[in-house]
């Protein structure tokens, strides 16, 4: 709603309320015995046939990995190949993009063409830095390294680890050779490889760049020349199959025959360093057979730690620790593939489906999606714990008068959009008492009753039960016209501004002060949009203009009425309001039988202390000033406007400039100025000359009237 942003600029107080937003409350999570979202290797969830194509697997799948660039890498052990998808599949039965260890997708011969850099024998461990690829081979007891990620089928590796030559498979117990190479991991510059038949893990401090590079460290044995199984302890290993360094720097080793996972809280710095934590057994000296339970890991092959969660495949299930275990022999929180922790039957005791496993051997989590190798069913399942995303928009303007609106809705899921089945829409964020309905991109909706800010909320749920954030949009319902009260202020000021305190009255222009409010927004004038001003009672011909609180206009002579009307942002119109303007008129005063002649601007007086009399507004203040000395006198007009004042001191002989100033109750000024001659005996005007022999001169104050001040109250 782009127009809403404009309104926020006008009313910043409401910016937070009027912004469209998403409430952060996703409910995405794995749940016990949940269904998979995608299946690879099979056309449906109910089939389990093996094969050799770009979309089929053997029944031994021992390694899965998703690298930082989103590539899915799977070790198809009994087809003696590695399959690669350039992006993590989002639809079932997606074929692979690349094959290594074989020249094409339909061959599966062990060491096809003879052991070399481009052949594989029982590959089972895979790892990618995003740039380099590492594959371990149980059959050839080695690790192949591609220095750049492969782009061609059957592409040759660059380096062999565990063997001096690309054609050899020596298993000597030393610092070079491996025997039954299994899980591997790279952390920084370090390479870790589990050598199952040597009951140890070898560590290279620097990733080898040449064949047969010696290891720098060994775990599970006292030195490089011992490889036999030892008594179960915190430092011993028997048939280790997996090794990982998680994002928190912990080293984990899957000790298969002892049915446990050993954990080092930090990377070991010396050979044969003992572990600090154990899972699957009550202590470091126990390695006996166990059955399925919430704290047993069985004869595991490949587990995975995200740093915060731990996933352990065994007993035809995946045991999930929702937070990384903090104590020995800790129990998991939920399982996939079984309905209870005690269950261990293939396919959960039933037939092949979207929930069961037959031989879980490897797992990997990437962006809240868990990839599980279900080798007995010759397939790989992907479980989605990431919630859908979406948005909602209320169509139309951001301020309306109706409660009926049209909604535009959009949503997306990390996997197939067809999994996005349901949505809930509400006028409150709690969604209380509602039922899920089929997802749709449009909907007619009724907003909650009353005026003011209205918000519509939506959330989405996919077929795995993952619930999205709550998304919302909002607008204002305004059905009330703006109020107006005594809403024009007229203030006349002189155009030249030469007099202080308000200046002299300018009878040609007035300043209008306009005040109004919008009661719905309740922010004074912030809700007002336009106004029109004119002199016609129906405002015919008056154009709409942006609302403002002060406006200078020219008024008719001698009197007139000004009309005003206001519009708020919603388009509601106020009543038409008015105020009267009255021009001041000149008042004439007679002196005896001779009326005041406005042409006479010079008077003469034979005395030294005349009394001045005149007319002004009732209760106006009068200040008379003889500027030559100066000499002043002040007076206040009575209720009929009459006033007089006599200077406190004599006025010297000669010509004097006299100013008489009035200030009425509204603070408006009026001035009358003339020349006064003392003891000259002559009054002249134009071509006429008058001798004045009187004890006082009567002066007329020109009153410009009383300006009526009326105010717009909002």
What report would you give on this structure?
By secondary structure, the chain is mainly β. The protein has 4 domains: 2-27 and 388-477, Immunoglobulins (Immunoglobulin-like, Sandwich), CATH 2.60.40.10; 38-384, 6 Propeller (Neuraminidase); 485-582, Immunoglobulin-like (Sandwich); 590-690, Immunoglobulin-like, CATH 2.60.40. The chain is built from 2 helices and 52 strands. The strands form 14 sheets. Strands 1, 27, 29, 30, 32 and 33 form a 6-stranded mixed beta sheet that branches.
CATH architecture of the largest domain: 6 Propeller
The tally of structural domains comes to 4
Distance between the termini: 30 Å
Helicity level: under 10%
What's the Cα radius of gyration? 48 Å
Structural class: mainly beta
Q: Report the CATH superfamily of the largest domain.
A: TolB, C-terminal domain
Biggest sheet statistics: 6 strands, mixed
Strand-residue proportion: 35-45%
Any idea of the CATH class of the largest domain? Answer: Mainly Beta
SS elements, strand count:
52
CATH topology of the largest domain: Neuraminidase
Shape: elongated
Number of helices: 2
The overall pLDDT average reads: 82
What ranges have pLDDT less than 50 throughout 5 or more consecutive residues? Answer: 1-25, 486-507, 582-596, 681-714
List the helices and strands and how they pair.
Layout: H1 2-10, H2 15-18, E1 22-23, E2 38-40, E3 61-66, E4 72-76, E5 81-85, E6 98-100, E7 123-128, E8 133-137, E9 142-146, E10 159-161, E11 181-187, E12 190-195, E13 200-204, E14 217-219, E15 240-245, E16 251-255, E17 260-264, E18 277-279, E19 304-305, E20 310-314, E21 317-321, E22 334-336, E23 360-366, E24 369-374, E25 379-384, E26 389-394, E27 399-400, E28 404-412, E29 420-426, E30 437-438, E31 442-446, E32 452-462, E33 470-477, E34 485-491, E35 509-514, E36 528-534, E37 545-546, E38 550-554, E39 559-568, E40 577-582, E41 590-591, E42 594-595, E43 602-605, E44 612-615, E45 621-626, E46 631-636, E47 642-645, E48 654-663, E49 669-678, E50 683-685, E51 688-690, E52 712-713
Parallel strand pairs: 27-33, 43-49
Antiparallel strand pairs: 1-33, 2-25, 3-4, 4-5, 5-6, 7-8, 8-9, 9-10, 11-12, 12-13, 13-14, 15-16, 16-17, 17-18, 19-20, 20-21, 21-22, 23-24, 24-25, 26-28, 28-31, 29-30, 29-32, 32-33, 34-35, 34-52, 35-38, 36-37, 36-39, 39-40, 41-42, 44-47, 45-46, 45-48, 48-49, 50-51
